[in-house]
From TrEMBL:
Protein name: BZIP domain-containing protein
Superkingdom of this protein's organism: Eukaryota
Region ranges (Disordered): 44-96
Biased composition regions of type Low complexity, renumbered to the chain: 79-96
Native organism: Drosophila navojoa (Fruit fly)
Length: 215
């Protein structure tokens, strides 16, 4: 708390938080909002035909925009916050351009038809900016769903390849096991070999043989 002298009031209360410097993260948020408003001001709000022509350009510029953050969110480091915001919208390049064109397509039934209400130019400008922001956030969500769907398809194909390889390996192992069992069964069922009589080649045997031949 601090007491300061301001104007005619001799003592006026001034909280200490107003004397401190605003964090860098708030400045980054203000810069992001200013860039967003500057980009939104370049687009037209007059007719639905203009919106149909601008949706493709808005969708292409949407990929480079960081994620909007609320003012009452927790304060992080400025560099880490910008890196996480840019990485959160990094989408895989496998999304087809037809799907992106379908997301950015303007649908006439999305327009709510109500009687026009008299508004000040400031209120009307705020309303137009909120409308554009809602459309952009809706398209960002659709892009995220498309990215998740593409990742699911890719992981499913990888899983099927792994399952196929495991099934092939299991069938090969079973076939080898059957061959080994068959070979063992043929060895056990084969007839016993006749023992060969081993001749005695001693000196006496040889001498008797020679005598028999002489007689």
């Amino acid at each position: 708390m601090a007491l300061t002298m301001q104007g005619n009031n001799p003592l006026s209360y001034r909280h200490k938080k107003f004397d401190l410097r605003r964090p860098r993260n708030d400045e980054l948020e203000l810069q992001i909002k200013e860039e967003l408003l500057a980009r939104l001001d370049t687009t037209g709000y007059n007719s639905a035909s203009d919106e149909e022509e601008d949706t493709s350009s808005q969708c292409s510029s949407l990929m480079s925009l960081p994620k909007r953050r609320r003012l009452n969110s927790t304060v992080y480091d400025g560099s880490n916050g910008s890196e996480s915001a840019s990485s959160s919208h990094s989408l895989p390049p496998s999304i087809s351009p037809e799907a992106l064109r379908d997301i950015c397509k303007y649908h006439g039934n999305m327009v709510r038809k109500f009687p026009k209400k008299e508004r000040s130019p400031k209120d009307q400008d705020r309303r137009n900016k909120n409308t554009i922001a809602c459309r952009m956030s809706r398209r960002v969500k659709k892009l995220e769903h498309l990215a998740i769907e593409e990742q699911y398809k890719e992981f499913t194909l990888q899983h099927l390849k792994i399952v196929e390889q495991s099934m092939r390996a299991t069938a090969y192992f079973n076939h080898l096991n059957q061959l080994v069992k068959h070979e063992q069964s043929t060895k056990s069922s084969a007839p016993a070999s006749v023992p060969v009589q081993v001749k005695n080649f001693s000196i006496d045997y040889l001498m008797n043989g020679i005598k028999g031949e002489q007689c």
